[in-house]
Amino acid sequence: MGAIPVDEGVAFRVWAPHASAMHVVGEFNDWSETAAPMASEGNGFWYAVLPDAAIGQGYKFFVTNGDQTFYRIDPYARQVTNSVGHGVIYDHGAYDWEGDQYDCPWHHELVIYELHVGSFFTDTEGRPGTFELVGEKLEHLVKLGVNAIQIMPVMEFAGDFSWGYNPAHIFAVESGYGGPDALKDLVKQAHRRGLAVIIDVVYNHFGPSDLDLWQFDGWSENGKGGVYFYNDDRSTTPWGDTRPDYGRDEVRRFIHDNAMMWLHDFHVDGLRFDMTPYIRSVHGSGIDLPEGWDLMRWINTSVRQTHPRAITIAEDMHQDPRISQIDDGGAAFHAQWDGAFVHPVRRVVIARSDEDRSIGALRDAIVTIYNGDAFHRVIYTESHDEVANGRARVPTEVNPDDPTGWHAQKRSTVGAALVLTSPGIPMLFQGQEFLQGEWFRDDVPLDWDLNDDFHGIVRLVRDLIRLRRNWRDTTRGLTGQGIDAYHVNEDDNVLAFHRWFDGGAGDSVVVVVNLHHESRHDYRIGMPLPGLWKLELNSDARIYSDDFGDFVSTDTHAEPSPDDGQGATALISIAPYSVLVYSYAG
C-alpha cells in the first residue's frame, strides 16, 4: 500500500471504494490532475506505476466521487512535509542500518524511561526538541542505568507542539521532530548504547484535526467519518468522533500494517498502546467492541510470532488479567500499565499527614500480580498522564510550596524506590531522576540544570536501578517473581517485603520502608533466613542530598527465631521517610 519504489519507477496503491476515479499528482507530473490516472482493481483498490516518479518527490491523490473532486494525502504516506502538506515518496529499504542488530532485554530485566521528544531537550527557545537532540542526551540515560526508552507518539500530528495523541498520519514520522531517517538514527544510536526503544501508538482514535482520512473517498453516513471510521454511535471517543472501524478488513489491515512497520522498518523493540479501553469498548468499560479486542489480539500475536524479543504494553488501567493472557481469548499483550500500583503508591507518599497513609493499601499495590506473572504489569509513580491534567509531579504534589525541600525529596524518592524494588517492569518519567517539578507540558522543556543541582538524587535513582538490575550480583531477587509483603505496621507506618528469584545468598532481598516522620531505632522485624543481611542502600545517606540526615543504618544479623511469619528475626534502624534495601549474604 502507498508509494512503493519498484524497478519500473514508483507504484501507487490506495483504497478508495467509493471513488469513481483516482489520479496521482505530484512533482513528477507538475501536480497535474489528469496526467496519471489509476486503474481500479475492482475491489475498492486503485493502482498505478509511474516511471517518472522518484524517491524524495512530493505527491498526493486526486479523488473523484461523482461531481466531487478533492486532494488527499496518502493514508500510507511514509513521510509528509507536515500534517496539512503532502506526502513524500520514501523508501525504507534505502536507509543504512549499518548492521544494527539488537535484542530487547528480557522483560524481567527491563527498566523503562518514558520521554517526550518535543520537551525532553531543546536548544532553541520556542522550538520543540528533535530526535537528534534526544540522541545528545542518551549518555545521561546510559549512566542512569535504564535500558529502554519509551517515546511518546511520533506519528505526524497537527502543529509543532503536542503530546502526540492526535495522530493525523500514522505511517509518517512527525516532521517537526526530524522525520523517518532521524528516528532511525536515534534507534540505531540507542541500540549501540544498550537501550531498547518502545514507541507509543494511538489506535483508539485518529486526529481529530488535520485528518485527510476523514471522508477519504467522499462517502460517509450520518455526517460521520467515512470508510476508515465507524459511521454510527461507535465512532464517539473522548478525543473526537474518530474511532476507526475495527470491523472493516481494510481498516484492520491498515492498523496492523502500521504496528508491524514500527518493528520491521524502524527496528523498534516494542509498542505501547494508548488507552486500550477505548479500542475494546465504546465508552471505555467492558468489551462491547469485540472486533477491537480481536484486532489487538491479532497485532500482539503477530508481534510474538515475528519479533519474539519485542514487548507490547497496554495502557488499560482496569486491572483486567485478560489483557496479558494468551490463551482463552486474551488480548495477548505482554504487560499493562498498572493502576493498582500507581494510585495507592502516589496517595501514600503524597499524603500530608502520617495518619492518612495506608500501609495495607501500599502492601496490596506491591503484591498485585496478573496471571501469576509479576512482569505482566508496568509500575510507576510518574507518567505523562499522572503529572498533567490537574495533577503534578510527585515532589510538587508532596509540597507545592517547596517542591525541592526535605519533604519533597524524601517522599518522592520513597516512591521511586518502591517502583524500582516492587514486582513489575519499572518505569520512570523524564526528569523524575532530578526532581523535575510542576506538571508536564509539551511546550516546556526539562530543566537540565536540575541534573546538576540534584546530582545526589540522580545518584540515588542510579543506585536503585543498579540494584534492580542486579549489577553487583547480590540482588537477583529484584528480577524475580517472588514477593511476600510480610510486615505491615499501620501504627508506625513501616512495611517490609521479601523479593526473590530462587532465594538464598545473592538472591533474596528485603526492602524496609518507613513512611513516618519519626525514625525507628532497634526495630524488630522478621527475616526470611537467618544469617547476615548486607545493607545495599540507605535512601537517607547524605551522598544523595545535603538535606538528608545520614541516619546510621547498618548490616544486620538475623537470629533463627521466627517472627512475622518468617524463619528469623533481626533488628534494624531506619530514618524518617526512608527505604533500606538488604541482600542476603548467608
Account of the protein in words:
This protein is an alpha/beta fold. It has three domains: 93 residues, Immunoglobulins (Immunoglobulin-like, Sandwich); 319 residues, TIM Barrel (Alpha-Beta Barrel), CATH 3.20.20.80; 109 residues, Sandwich (Immunoglobulin-like), CATH 2.60.40. It is built from 13 helices and 26 strands. The strands form six sheets. An eight-stranded parallel β-barrel has the order 9-10-13-14-15-16-17-18, surrounded by five helices. The N and C termini lie far apart (62 Å).
Summarize the structure.
By secondary structure, the protein is an alpha/beta fold. It has helices at residues 117-120, 131-136, 138-144, 179-192, 249-264, 277-280, 290-306, 339-350, 359-367, 394-398, 406-421, 450-453, 455-468; strands spanning 2-6, 9-15, 21-26, 39-40, 45-50, 58-65, 68-72, 87-88, 112-115, 148-151, 155-157, 167-173, 196-201, 270-273, 311-314, 335-337, 377-379, 425-429, 482-489, 494-500, 509-514, 520-527, 531-538, 556-558, 568-574, 578-584.
Q: What would the average pLDDT be, to the nearest integer?
A: 97
Strand order of the largest sheet: 9-10-13-14-15-16-17-18
Looking at CATH, the homologous superfamily of the largest domain is Glycosidases
Q: Approximately how much beta-strand content do the residues carry?
A: 15-25%
| Topology-level CATH name of the largest domain | TIM Barrel
- The helix fraction, in percent, is 10-25%
Spatial gap, N to C terminus: 62 Å
Structural class: alpha/beta
Sheet with the most strands, sense and barrel status: 8 strands, parallel, barrel
Q: Note poorly predicted spans.
A: none
Number of strands: 26
**Radius of gyration, CA atoms, in whole angstroms:** 26 Å
CATH architecture title of the largest domain: Alpha-Beta Barrel
> So what's the CATH class of the largest domain?
Alpha Beta
Count of the separate structural domains: 3
Number of helices: 13
Backbone shape: elongated
